[in-house]
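Batch queue: ligand-bound targets. Current item pairs a single chain with zinc ion. No template structures supplied; prediction is de novo from sequence plus SMILES. Inputs echoed for audit trail.
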Amino acid sequence: MINVTALTLGPIAVNCYVVTDKDTGRIAVIDPGSFEPILDETLSEAGFDKIDYVLLTHGHYDHIGGVNQVVEKTGGKAKVAIYKTEAPFLSDGNLNLSSRHFANPYPPIRSDILLSDGDKIELGSSVFTVLHTPGHTSGSICFICENSLFTGDTLFFNSVGRTDFPTSNFDHLMGSVRRIAALQGDYIVFPGHNSASTLDYERKHNPFMRN
Ligand SMILES: [Zn+2]
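Prediction returned. Tokens below.
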């Protein structure tokens, strides 16, 4: 069983999720967009030595800005996982958009695990499954763990992510939304921005998912 703590970080309010495997206390940090005191305090309290992974839904600056500090605080032990074709975003300010928003692009971020669709990531006794959901970026992914669905900027409460960025593709995004809608059963949707939702709610109400 997992416990999910949501933290809203950075100038455009990314949702970072601290996911803890209840049996072992092992931690995965999803999208640490900015290393702010609330993230530092939350992870210090839990123990930086408990962090096994930094999981990235995609490579945009607002989702990755705190990765290097989190990894440093673990003594370099936490493994950074991103979809295999998205890894170049971690060292390219034009792809991750840090060049657009800051005077200097981000320093490079190391990727340790290059993910493929269907990959399983073990966190203590819990397991994340990778779902490749291109569209917002070509290497965007969702993570499924138990009844939690971490959707990054692919699926939002009543909306979907933008498709006007490098490697974006609206048709691919709609295909990904259909794939998510076709998952069996209901999930809690933990998106990259704005409110959490449920998959059943989105199937009924999200204008991009209803049709
Ligand atoms: Zn994004």
